[in-house]
Amino acid sequence: MTTPVRIPKPAPVSKLDLIHRPRRNRKSDWARRLVRENVLTPDDLIWPIFLKDGDTRREEVDSMPGVERLSVEEAVREARRAVSLGIPAIALFPNTDPSLRDAEGREALREANLVCRACRAIKAKVPGLGLVTDVALDPYTSHGHDGLMRGEAILNDETVAVLVGQALNQARAGADVIAPSDMMDGRVAAIRKGLDAEGFEEVQIMSYAAKYASAFYGPFRDAVGSGALLKGDKRTYQMDPANGDEALREVALDLAEGADMVMVKPGLPYLDIVRRVKERYGVPTFAYQVSGEYSMIAAAAERGWIDGDKAMMESLIAFKRAGADGILTYFAPRAAAALKAGL
Ligand code: PBG
Question: For residues 90 and 131, what is the distance between their CA atoms, to the nearest angstrom?
């Protein structure tokens, strides 16, 4: 025979004599809305889009659930969708045909390369949308690095000369914002000078100023097809994740060289850097929620381990709270749609 469990009586509650009850401001939806410090709007979003050559219009990126590589035609369609969702700008990244990649990344300079064709098509059909193009050689090189190589070394000044040509090629195709992601020293000044000399004074530069050597870029390299090619790693040009002060110095240099906007990348693991950059320089500061960050959320949501929409919105408001003016994120269309739906 089992003895009945005796449930002890709760102790009598004596009301706490509290002056401050922070919960009062959280008591209902309207009260929470009233004291909300940060808001996310579609205006905060830049949508990175992957492009592909060939006949198929769309193909899935295996390591990024919900993200596809698009033909130029489909990219135009998504550009229209971006406008209808209120997203101000998209960023283009090509998956270059392997036969067009070489050690020098010469395809980057070709007038009719994939990115330039997409720029021309989108500018013609969707003129009101901001077009951001990435300057770096990794989608074009047979070794997967962002710069030219001699032996194991990534050459700085020789690479910068090519990057200027790449930036001009993109500007001629209609790019509004040149975004150098290569981390070579002195490239912002060189690109600014090159743009101005050709009459592109209005083309902005958003520099990937503090870009870290990160494992979170893995799915991106899959998407643009550079991952399998990459020899070694990018630690001689991308930053050491252990460093914070160095990021401020990188930002200072890029601003001095003429950057209009700066970026911190990756995003969530580097929110401290976003905050420090914004506080120190007070300039337009962007964060890139990179592919690996996207995939962690998307994959966990796919398995039902987290609520994908809620995790997405929570991650995006974190950037705003840290002081970011905008976020490059693969969630852009989904987040904009969620905002529209009042989520
Ligand atoms: C290329 C580039 C990278 C990303 C943007 N531009 C990858 C890299 O430096 O290896 C990463 C973006 C992402 O992971 O979403 N220079």
Answer: 6
Domains and CATH numbers, the chain: 39-340 (3.20.20.70)
- Contacts of residue 101, defined as CB under 8 A and 6 or more positions apart, other chains included, come to 107, 140, 141, 142, 229
Using an 8 Å Cβ cutoff, are 264 and 285 in contact?
yes
**For residue 239, how far is its CA from the centre of ligand 1 (angstroms)?**
13
d(CA 21, CA 19): 7
Nearest in space to 330 (alpha carbons), one of 13, 14, 93 = 93
For the stretch 48-96, pLDDT in tens is: 999 999 888 999 999 999 999 999 999 999 999 999 999 999 999 999 9
pTM for this structure? Answer: 0.95
Q: Which residue lies with its CA nearest to atom 11 of ligand 1? A: 217
| Ligand 1 nearest-atom number relative to CA 211 | 9
Output the CA torsion sign for 297, 299, 300, 303: positive
Q: How many Cβ atoms from other residues are within 10 Å of residue 310's Cβ? A: 13
